[in-house]
Amino acid sequence: MKIVVLDGYTENPGDLSWSELGKLGELTVYDRTPVQDETEIIRRIGDAEIVYTNKTPISRQVIDACPGMKMISLLATGYNVVDYQYAREKGIPVTNVPAYGTASVSQFSIALLLEICHHIGHHSQSVREGKWEKSIDWCYWDYPLIELEGKTMGIIGFGRIGQAEGRIARALGMKVIAHDLYPNDTGREIAEYVDLDELYARADVITLHCNLTAENTRFINREAISKMKDGVILINNARGQLIHEQDVADALNSGKMGAAGLDVVDTEPIRGDNPLLKAKNCIITPHISWAPKESRQRIMDCAVSNAKAYLAGAPIHVVNR
């Protein structure tokens, strides 16, 4: 049996091993596959039975051109790069890796917030540039410093990751409110569920941990921002398309929004004309919340488990049943 990994580099840049997956069949791993070159995608899949992808698209045309393909497996949770509905019509299970990044993504969200509160990277660099050595005072700070205790965090999307972040926020002394389509008892132990308008009105910090849907695409827009507190802090390491980037940039530049910490943007890699690049008080990181080694090892382990389950005739983590 042949197994192909179309874009394995971000999952494993060399610090993990593909050996367990290689034990299951003849394995070929490509670091990267040109995402716009459908002909090359088809060529690389060839007659492989199991195909792994992270961001390389597998379209209807690719599925039709590769009749030997029996399972498509994501090296991620999101599966929008695969025409999973057509795969279902063709009897091909599409599997993903759920819940691997709960700890890392919630931790990174808090890291973005703490960087906004203290600008640790900036102040460390300023010391190395000699500013402290030349200071007439025994200390200085270039940005207002923010204490989080007693402030309110509003979390939109209160599943595993949102609840993990809520627990950390409470440990920092914050009050936590949340909005979710499916409130549950576990969530109620951490936060008070509220509607969106109340969350906008009460939260000092708003963080996004919701799935991207047609209904919530760019829902953080001018209208929503107008309902928020002046100086609100926005954190987004869920999906870039949840925010209207120009509206957020305008709010940052006007001071309506105090700061933003973003690990995701609408188009990735980021484009040079993205308005957030020139916005005030905006921290942007290159979509790395998911990427600690421990988290990526869980992806690798689940990828192997998905293949073993398929070979045993009982596929797991199937998103297109």
Characteristic terms for this protein:
321 residues, 2 domains, Rossmann fold, five-stranded parallel β-sheet, 12 helices, alpha/beta, 12 strands
Q: Could you report the average pLDDT, rounded to the nearest whole number?
A: 97
- The CATH architecture classification of the largest domain is 3-Layer(aba) Sandwich
Q: What's the total count of β strands? A: 12
Q: Runs with pLDDT <50, length 5+?
A: none
Percent of residues in β-strands: 5-15%
- The top-level CATH class of the largest domain is Alpha Beta
State the order of secondary-structure elements, H for helix, E for strand: EHEHEHEHEHHEHEHEHEHEHEEH
Structural class: alpha/beta
How large, in whole angstroms, is the Cα Rg? Answer: 22 Å
- Cα distance spanning the termini: 23 Å
The main β sheet shows up as: 7 strands, parallel
> How many discrete domains?
2
Question: Could you provide a short overview of the structure?
Answer:
The chain is α/β, with parallel strands linked by helices and 321 residues long. The chain has 2 domains: 2-100 and 293-311, NAD(P)-binding Rossmann-like Domain (Rossmann fold, 3-Layer(aba) Sandwich), CATH 3.40.50.720; 102-284, Rossmann fold (3-Layer(aba) Sandwich), CATH 3.40.50. It has helices at residues 19-22, 38-45, 60-65, 84-89, 102-118, 120-128, 160-171, 185-188, 196-202, 222-226, 245-254, 293-311, and strands at 2-5, 26-29, 50-53, 71-74, 94-95, 152-156, 175-179, 192-193, 205-208, 232-236, 257-262, 282-284.
